[in-house]
Amino acid sequence: MRGTKRARVGIARLRSLLVGLLALTTAAAATACAATDDRARIVVTTNILGDVTRQIVGDEAEVTVLMKPNADPHSFGLSAVQAAELEGADLVVFNGLGLEENVLRHVDAAREAGVATFEAGEAVDPLTFHASDDGGPADGAGQPDPHFWTDPDRMRKAAGLMADQVVEHVDGVDETAIRANAARYDSRLAELSTWMADSFDRIPDDERALVTNHHVFGYLAERFGFRVIGAVIPSGTTLASPSSSDLRSLTRAMERAGVRTVFADSSQPKRLAEVLRTELGGDVRVIELYSESLTAKGEGADTYLRMMRANTTAMTDGLTASPGGG
Fold first, then answer.
1. Cβ atoms within 10 Å of 249's Cβ, excluding its own
2. With b meaning 16 or more CB within 10 Å and e meaning fewer, what string describes 115-145?
């Protein structure tokens, strides 16, 4: 009997201990959840700007990126949960200038609800679409070109302004840490810009001619002295479609310029670009670039810096592979 009583006492004590541990665990979990819920939140629309934002913010705030890897910024949309995340953010960072065509209305709604927003494209002296070098106008000529990130110097400016926005609008962040992160990343962007210029110096001036799936490299062309001969889709958006006359105009321009290389966005089907092979006799090279989206981790362009280096290498190799850029 005495042993049984001792056993009962031991079990009671064990139960009491377990109840106490459970209470402590529950309290700790509640505290952790509260801390997580109270953490400042930044929502970014595109994955390119998402990567840059994370470099600047570090661990100072939670950064949510809406656009998935390998997506098209012109066509991706939001779920109801993602739309709600925008209105619950401390700061929304978006490209703007019409890029996120299915998302901008949600950004506007968040702004109307009192959320601070930062339109990176508008803040970096945007270019406008203009006539191609073959004399043919791009669809949307005179409209702002949203693809500013192809110029690393404009991205440097955007990153610096983004740091200012985080410090101003996101409560609880350590300004010293944000500024240190921004300065570190600025140095890496400056190195990228210099490296790109040195790489492109390998291409003779008369061979710096670009033909792409759609008009996306206007900023790069201005920064590094390229001529934009034309695009398979004569527009700044992938949602447009080329006509047969568009393709004929482009092939004539390519023949006049002696260009036999087309750079196609890796996130888009190459069917349209490959049509040119038939139009020009079958000896057109189609080279993939990462122009509007980062890839998944480990796929070659999972950060802005890797994307820009991969594109620079592909463009340089593609335009120096043989005389005439072919």
1. 18
2. bbbbbbbebbebbebeebbbebebbbbebbb
pLDDT digits (tens, 9 = 90+) for 201-255: 999 998 999 988 778 899 999 999 999 888 776 544 444 455 677 677 778 878 8
d(CA 326, CA 324): 6
Location of structure tokens 């889709």? 233
**Which pair of structure tokens corresponds to residue 135?**
């004399």
Cα distance between residue 143 and residue 136, in whole Å: 16
Write the DSSP symbol of residue 144: B
230 burial level (CB within 10 Å; 0-12, 13-18, 19+): buried
Please give the model's pTM, rounded to 2 decimal places.
0.81
Amino acid letter, residue 228:
V
- Of all helices (H) and strands (E), which one includes residue 229? strand 227-233
Q: What is the DSSP string of 174-209?
A: -HHHHHHHHHHHHHHHHHHHHHHHHHHTTS-GGG-E
Cross-strand bridge partners of residue 117: 92
The full 3-state SS of 82-134, as one line of letters, equals: HHHHHHCCCEEEECCCCCCCCCHHHHHHHHHCCCEEEECHHHCCCCECCCCCC
Asked if 197 and 215 count as a contact pair (C-beta separation under 8 A), the reply is no
Sign of CA pseudo-dihedral 100, 102, 104, 107:
negative
- pLDDT, one tens digit per residue, over 35-61 is 445 789 999 999 999 999 999 999 999
Which amino acid makes up residue 42?
A: I
Residue 122 has pLDDT above 70, yes or no: yes
CA 299/CA 303 separation, integer angstroms:
10
**39 vs 197: which has the higher pLDDT:** 197
Contact 155, 138 (CB under 8 A): no
- Tokens describing residue 180: 């240190």
Structure tokens at 114: 């009192």
Q: Which of 146, 153, 154, 163 lies closest to 53, judged by CA?
A: 163
